[in-house]
Amino acid sequence: MADIADGAAKPGLSTPIDWPTKPYLGVKAMMVPLSASMRVDNLNDNLLLALRRDDATGDMQPVSIPKGAYLRLSDFVNEYDFADYQYPPTDKFRDFHKFGRTIEGYPELAR
């Protein structure tokens, strides 16, 4: 609340900001790729819970989104999904891939 009160006193919420030289005055924001999300809330220390609109059907769907990555692996086609993909020994994304696929309901795709 203190950050919001402090930010409200600065340009950006009620007065124009100096774009493009100082675009982030006021309350600090973090850009995240959560397209079609209608509502977002904390689920726990690791996940956000979002209510988003399905692009193909227009239906609303609840989804979990990992904090830090702010994306769902199942929303993208990536090299991890190819049947012949082999993780390099030092691949730093392997654990995230297993976590992401499991929380999205596709544990069989996390190799």
Brief write-up:
The protein is α+β, with helices and mostly antiparallel strands and 111 residues long. The protein is 15% helix and 18% strand.
> Major sheet, described briefly?
3 strands, antiparallel
Q: Distance between the terminal alpha carbons, to the nearest Å?
A: 43 Å
**Proportion of beta-strand residues:** 15-25%
Number of strands: 3
Give the % helix: 10-25%
Low-pLDDT segments, ≥5 res = none
Order of strands in the sheet with most strands: 1-2-3
Molecular shape: elongated
H/E series, N to C?
HEEEH
**Mean model confidence by pLDDT:** 79
Number of domains in the coordinates?
Answer: 3
The Cα radius of gyration reads: 18 Å
> What is the overall number of helices?
2
What structural class results from the helix and strand content?
Answer: alpha+beta
